[in-house]
């Protein structure tokens, strides 16, 4: 749709006159510097904030970065793209617009970035401005291999909270060009004022706050959000999709009708739009969007608000964290926990510890995978630590495991601080956080009732559940474990990449030039062995492995003496674990017959977002689900706000462990060991 001119609007040749003071097509760094130098209102800019015209954009973009970046991680900061009705003629005019619209106040309060985009041709927005939007998104998200240089006063942003504001012709541009699949997969919400034009074709859902828009615009956004019900919220008419309800009960697919008398954004409206819509929604990235060369697309979801869930949110850092083994951690605690502590009753609460991935953040992990929402729904304590692992860079050093230290932190710090039900402690983590989850649960299986490594990294030592390294006793303990992975997860799927072409795997996946057979099956075997379910083992080659073979280091099958290759994890150029008796032609994802394994069950389910996923369960002799792994549709290496609820419903809620004997129970029934 981006190359389509809709209903004859925006027909303006690139030769249109550029207004005085506005750098036009091919904005140079020198021109931007000159505009920045002419800014006469610099004294109004808060200390440490940055207001500038971006020199690396082809169109004129005025960028504001707040005086305090989004705390605790700038990659989660809200971002506002603003398309004004008339081009902004200068830095002074752009600053006055920012100040008077209320966005300056909002940016400072919410630690958000604001970017004003002029039309590329200096007069009217058109199809070419979609390309500018796309280019800015690539830069904001830190997409690699760009053909232009850029700089921002903050690191790359995960565009989960990208909000677009349009006034007049800017609102028309947003409706006509930023509702295709890529755009709507990145935009979390719109605020449109005075829009009148809509495209001929419907598109994808974007929650919207509409002011003074035509009936056609209102009907259009009702249509793409598939609204079927109406309500009144704080005096405003709200149309919503009653069939798209998050675990919180909130319906993010909605259209809010604001004050129809407003013709331009003001402070009251900006604050209201934030409170009734923007702070409640974000973009849940579920699939890699290969066409965007690294920019990801997703679906609209709700963002949990702790106070609305009757939770207290705590950040523990600095002196408060000294001597704990962690430099910081975050807590979401049901408020009744504090009442229990004040009254000194015997009430205890389940504890879930969640571990973040490489480059992610504790809060991002807890929110985006649904753990904060679960804390509110199920009244459990959720804790997200920071210092989870130290990854060695081969070949100089091996990875340092902190499983014991993590377990000690949970046992001696968190369980001493709160009235934790010691029989119901669980651990989960995403990506490298999954490695830490497996490592910590293997180090101290008596502490945890169940574990859930999500999207386990697919390389080298990380695939191991190292109970033998820690001397954990399989005669005394069992460990229920749940694993999930998207079918398009880069490097983490079990699909045989030798049979997949570059075009099929996409830019973010391992390709046929880096053949590798995944070792997730090895981790499954270790869990099955620990749980004494040896009749269900996957038939794998008996081999020794070297954590860090050199780039061309040969690996030898110890039985046959055959050279089967080495691997180099860090540049992904060679195969790693080599397995035998895996048939990827017959079983394209797994390489083995799940249903043909004794005491297993395989079924297919669908989430409310329409993600069809395969659920595989391995039962022990008592009929308990001890190993479960999910293949999550076409998802990539992505967080998913329903993961926590799936894990809780399928696994965590059923299991408890006697803290004295280590005996596991399923729905209150104790195991035989």
Provide a compact summary of the structure.
This protein is of the alpha/beta class and 673 residues long. It is 23% helix and 21% strand.
Descriptive account of the structure:
By secondary structure, this protein is an alpha/beta fold. Helices cover 23% and strands 21% of the residues. Helix 13 links the parallel strand 17 and strand 18. It is elongated. The termini are far apart.
Number of helices: 17
Quaternary structure classification: single chain
Spatial ordering of strands, largest sheet: 1-2-4-3-5-6-7-10-9-8
Residue windows where pLDDT falls under 50 for at least 5 positions: 1-26, 289-294, 392-399, 493-517, 542-559, 563-579
What value does the average pLDDT take?
81
Q: Can you summarize the main beta sheet?
A: 10 strands, mixed
Proportion of β residues?
15-25%
Using only C-alpha atoms, the radius of gyration works out to: 27 Å
The total count of strands amounts to: 25
Percent helix = 10-25%
How does the overall form come out from the CA principal axes? elongated
Distance from N terminus to C terminus (CA atoms, Å) equals 62 Å
Label the structural class: alpha/beta
